[in-house]
UniProtKB/TrEMBL annotation:
GO terms for cellular component: cytosol. InterPro entries: Thioredoxin-like_sf, TXNDC17-like, TXNDC17_dom. This is Thioredoxin-like protein. GO terms for molecular function: protein-disulfide reductase [NAD(P)H] activity. Residues 1-23 are annotated as: Disordered. Residues 19-117 form the Thioredoxin domain. Belongs to the thioredoxin family. Residues 9-23 have a biased composition (Low complexity).
Length: 129
């Protein structure tokens, strides 16, 4: 399932992530774009790998943009608050039932860590090897 950029409120996203208990749900948190490009170098590095990883999967995957640099740096940024508790960008949050896990910053664009966090390769991913 291709990644979908969400414009839902943080509370609606949290509720949506927690409502899918049979399989994990994911939230990808990136820095916002300026002139079509993320201001965050780690986000730019991660985006193609994350897009490819989730392209043929069935899990719920939402993408949000945490803001421009000045918005992101504010302590009241909603993505820094519980239950998201994002400290660095990019971050992938995996919610299984009521368990929240995070893959953060350079670990997001480390293919081995990304694969381990998201789960086993799908049949289609394995065919491309």
């Amino acid at each position: 399932m291709p990644l979908q950029v969400s414009t839902e409120s943080p509370s609606a996203i949290a509720q949506s992530l927690e409502s899918s208990s049979s399989q994990p749900s994911f939230l990808v948190v990136y820095a916002s774009h300026v002139n079509g490009r993320s201001w965050c170098g780690d986000c730019r590095e991660a985006e193609p790998l994350v897009d490819a990883k989730f392209a043929d999967r069935t899990e719920v995957v939402k993408v949000i943009y945490a803001g421009q640099q000045d918005e992101w740096r504010k302590t009241e940024n909603p993505w820094k608050q519980a239950p998201f508790s994002v400290t660095n960008l990019p971050t992938i949050i995996k919610v299984t039932g009521n368990k929240w896990e995070r893959l953060v910053e350079e670990d997001v664009y480390n293919q081995k860590k990304l694969d381990a966090f998201v789960g086993p390769k799908t049949k289609q991913e394995q065919q491309h090897l």
